[in-house]
From TrEMBL:
The keyword ATP-binding applies. It comes from Phocaeicola dorei. This is ATP-binding protein. InterPro entries: ATPase_dom, P-loop_NTPase. GO terms for molecular function: ATP binding. Keywords: ATP-binding, Nucleotide-binding. Residues 16-256 form the ATPase domain. It comes from the Bacteria.
Length: 292
């Protein structure tokens, strides 16, 4: 049986805890064309929050498309533009054939070479190799608006660990180009989210930086114990196991309601329980968590 508790990956909706107001706020802002900068410490669930909220939004409004870019491992400016173009094209077209058509239609200045890849299920995907010049860079940054306007959709670009881009050589020039292109776009919203508060605040609140007041700044708070307890109890119950409210509260206290560690601790205890959680199981599995 699959555990109802997840950690180390993006949490799916079934394993997602509450965040009703935060999801509503993200959907309202981004769906209305307001850019968002979401800031929280690592492992508080911001990436899962954005993913779940955007999945809900695309179900509620069929004219919205969302692409996700993880900036954490991007090492060069050229790599960012390549991934940016690829993900924007991929989210706006449902088939490989349509994506190839969009490359030809919307990336005329870039003349990319296209690489087709086959995975173990024989599904083809594509990647782009770009020869970048000043003109082609602006064409890539303007790509979301051009595609959205041509297809009659609203496009949302979500960039995780956005502050990592500030570490790239030449970022200051890159930052100015991004702001110049993106601030004019009417059918595109941007969601930047990051875990390094001081860097994200400098990007968004420093009046000398291009992204000053680019959008609404949101600070993610910890999920409260009173929201965690019913989630934990219900998760055990629906998998035919039992944990008391008092025991669920104890788990919250052990890790101070830290989302990642609480999901991990609950997983350890759930996997070590056949029917009913005991104090002995909690003690043994808590030590197991500490030792990992």
């Amino acid at each position: 049986m699959k555990s109802p508790f997840q950690y180390g990956t993006l949490v799916d909706k079934e394993s997602f805890v509450n965040r009703v107001e935060e999801r509503k706020q993200l959907k309202e802002l981004l769906g209305s064309g307001i850019n968002v900068m979401l800031i929280s410490p690592r492992r508080w669930g911001k990436s899962s929050l954005v993913k779940v909220a955007m999945d809900e939004l695309t179900q509620e409004d069929k004219h919205i498309r969302v692409c996700f870019i993880d900036a954490f491992s991007i090492k060069t400016e050229a790599e960012f533009y390549r991934i940016f173009a690829r993900e924007v094209i991929s989210c706006a077209a449902s088939t490989l054939e349509k994506r190839l058509e969009d490359v030809k239609q919307f990336l005329k200045a870039v003349s990319p070479s296209i690489t087709l890849k086959s995975d173990p299920t024989d599904t083809l995907s594509f990647d782009l190799k770009l020869e970048l010049e000043e003109k082609s860079v602006m064409e890539i940054l303007e790509l979301p608006e051009k595609i959205a306007a041509a297809k009659g959709i609203h496009l949302i670009v979500c960039i995780d660990e956005f502050q990592q881009l500030a570490l790239l050589p030449g970022y200051k020039s890159m930052e100015g180009k991004m702001r110049s292109a993106w601030q004019k776009q009417q059918q595109v919203s941007y969601c930047f989210y990051g875990s390094k508060r001081h860097m994200m605040m400098d990007i968004s609140n420093n009046s000398s930086n291009p992204f000053y007041r680019f959008g609404q700044v949101l600070f993610l708070q910890k999920i409260k114990k009173e929201e965690w307890v019913p989630f934990i109890v219900n998760a055990f119950h629906r998998t035919n196991k039992e944990i008391s409210e008092q025991q669920a509260e104890q788990l919250c206290d052990i890790v101070k309601c830290h989302s990642w560690y609480l999901q991990q601790l609950c997983y350890f205890i759930w996997s070590g329980t056949s029917e009913k959680v005991t104090d002995e199981i909690i003690e043994i599995r808590t030590h197991q968590l500490i030792d990992t």
